[in-house]
Amino acid sequence: MSRPVSHKGLAGLGSADGHVRNRTSRRAPEVDRLEQERNLLAAGRTQIAGVDEAGRGPLAGPVVAAAVMFPEAWLRGEFPAELAKLNDSKQLTESQREDYFTWLTAHAEVRFGIAAADAGLIDRLNILQATHRAMNDALAQLTPAPAHVLVDGLRVKTLRWPQTALVKGDARSYSIAAASVLAKVTRDRQMLAYDREFPGYGFAVHKGYGTPMHLAAIARLGPCAIHRKSFAPMKAEQTELVLRKANLQAQGLKFLTANFRSARGEIDLVFRDDDCLVFVEVKTRSSEDWPRPAAAVNARKKRLLSQTAMDYVRLLKDPRVKIRFDIVEVLLADGAVREVRHLPNTFTLIAPLRHG
User: Fold this and answer.
1) Average pLDDT over residues 267-280
2) For labeling, which of 51, 96, 299, 351 is most exposed (least CB within 10 Å)?
3) Paired sense of beta strands 148-152 and 48-54, if any
4) What is the C-alpha separation between 122 and 127, in angstroms, rounded?
5) Is 52 exposed, middle or buried (0-12, 13-18, 19+ CB in 10 A)?
6) What is the rounded CA–CA span in Å between residue 172 and residue 243?
């Protein structure tokens, strides 16, 4: 039988190396990774699941979601000592993740579900909607069905169960941490298989993320079947076609750069129109049955674009310029550009512009 672990004194247990810090050194506050679950139990909620994803950011491969539901007795005080160091999968070594994956999936009392959205679905829906669909699919595999779900990050509007969203939840909840491990290991194993199927890209090394090695392979070989065509730099291959069809340069706009990145985000295209900088967000859809592409530029996206635009302006020698934001909608048919719509001046700078 698994040895229980107490709720207190868990701070050192969550670290990847497990080393005990000097008592006189400055330590992070203790984290009780069962606090959220116990609060829900006290409110009369049982069948509590954690859900998390892996692979939202890569240029290739699926996004994978996993859901985990521990027995109620574990949450009330008999949590296995074998899971005491379970943490956000990114804080664990590969061997630790593999060990936890084996333990979790082999234990009869642990309920779990794993689902994925491939690159094609990501391109059709967008990465956020595809991630949320995978989360719903993973949760739907749980038997019995969850009564409440702990979600890593922000609230998921389309989730079909009552939920509590926890920022950095994979480091605050054992249920979410377990889900993050299952999602991460499942995706990494899939990318190893893709490395054999599509040699030359280095998927076994970078797992599809946009590393210099991966970007060089794309430049040399072009994208393969598992690349997300709606992601930069794959979008860059269609930039020239988009520019031509959107007629932007014919309108007198001078092209400056594509795929500008800062710590806050990315802007697809940047132009200059006399004394005005024009930041262009390119949104793609594969079917008219989905909402208009521009609808994906919500308030949060506008705020991030505004902050990224400010980062670009700070790089200029003379930052005293006007700013506008355009959207270019790209409608695809069978993977090819069918129609391009240019929507000028769609929103104004949200965050105040500060210089210096």
Assistant:
1) 86
2) 299
3) parallel
4) 5
5) buried
6) 46
